[in-house]
Design a protein that fits this description.
This protein has about 140 residues and is α+β, with helices and mostly antiparallel strands. Helices cover about 25% and strands about 25% of the residues. It contains three helices and six strands; from the N terminus they run H-H-E-E-H-E-E-E-E.
């Protein structure tokens, strides 16, 4: 049974229903970097200079590692609380806002509408200085 405080916190920050999650690991997939690049190009195309960093993070960013088959992406914008600077463009590109945590460095989490294969986390500039061992950055 989930902790009541955790469920309460999730209800405070999750937009829409709390979906049950089952985590499964997959063997390393050589297409993960290319799938990240596809998303990164779409994000950069939608946001232009508003995207100060787009990085492949999480387990699929680590070569030769079994991982949950979800492409995790870090998007850094100047001020994540200024949603009008990026959210409409990302929604037009097919992402939907799922988590809003203004008290956690303005953290937002989006996913591709109708899919669970990619997650886009957005935060402010502080995150660009945090080392991310073995993560892949977009080549653009």
């Amino acid at each position: 049974m989930p902790d009541d405080h955790l469920v309460e916190r999730l209800r405070d920050v999750v937009i829409g229903d709390l979906d049950p999650v089952r985590v499964e690991l997959a063997d390393p997939d050589p297409t993960w970097p290319a799938r990240f690049e596809e998303h990164a190009q779409g994000i950069r195309s939608a946001l232009g200079a508003a995207a100060t960093a787009v990085e492949h993070i999480g387990s699929t960013a680590v070569p030769d590692l079994a991982a949950k088959p979800i492409i995790d992406i870090l998007l850094v914008v100047v001020d994540p609380n200024e949603e009008t600077a990026y959210l409409p463009q990302l929604e037009d590109a097919g992402y939907e806002l799922r988590v809003r945590e203004p008290d956690f460095d303005g953290h937002r989490m989006l996913r591709m509408r109708g899919a669970s294969e990619s997650w886009l986390g957005g935060s402010g500039p502080r995150w660009t200085t945090t080392p991310k061992p073995r993560a892949r950055s977009s080549s653009r």
